[in-house]
Design goal:
The chain has about 190 residues and is α+β, with helices and mostly antiparallel strands. It is about 35% helix and about 40% strand.
Length: about 190
């Protein structure tokens, strides 16, 4: 009977302790980043191919393009990327022909000035006797501010943990009084 009561008394304390640790870690951790995946694709090409993709930026911010020249069945002999609006080139990158190319990944970062639709153009040329190649790319967006502060939610969580601990202590005190009254009655 005592071991059951002891475990029941430890359980709320354990839960409160875990919640307090969670609240403390959320308060001490840095601000949360607001990254968003805009577009991701893997494409097999035969012969020189060009593809244009549109993507929408929700606000002004930074877009990071990541292109990977995959070594299957053989690496591409050329790979290029261009980001643009209908009237302006925002960024471009070209991987020149490489005779002994292996899988390689390149990143390119550029700014978008306002929310809207933008375009990504990728041109790929396979290498080797099969004239087949594969590339993969992704576009990630980070809003204009580098981080999203979350202080209100952290303080709200801390307040909730304090209230929970107080409720558990008052509950434990009532149980102690109730048990002592039962003992006195017997």
């Amino acid at each position: 009977m005592r071991s059951t009561q002891a475990s029941q008394q430890l359980r709320p304390g354990l839960i409160a302790g875990m919640l307090a640790i969670g609240a403390l870690s959320s308060l001490l951790s840095g601000p949360t980043r607001a990254d968003m995946l805009l577009l991701a694709n893997t494409t097999m090409v035969t012969g020189t191919e060009s593809a244009t993709y549109s993507f929408t930026a929700p606000t002004a911010g930074t877009v990071t393009a990541e292109l990977t020249n995959l070594d299957w069945p053989q690496a591409l002999s050329a790979l290029s990327f261009m980001a643009s609006t209908p009237g302006q080139v925002l960024a471009s990158w070209s991987d020149p022909t490489q005779s002994n190319a292996l899988t390689s990944t390149h990143q390119l970062t550029f700014q978008v000035a306002r929310p809207g639709t933008y375009f990504a153009n990728i041109t790929a040329t396979p290498g080797g006797p099969l004239d087949i190649g594969v590339y993969s790319f992704s576009l990630h967006f980070t809003n204009g501010s580098s981080a999203v502060p979350l202080p209100a939610s952290g303080w709200l969580l801390a307040a909730a943990v304090i209230v929970l601990v107080g409720m558990l202590r008052s509950r434990r005190a009532r149980r102690t009084i109730h048990v002592s009254q039962l003992s006195a009655a017997n």
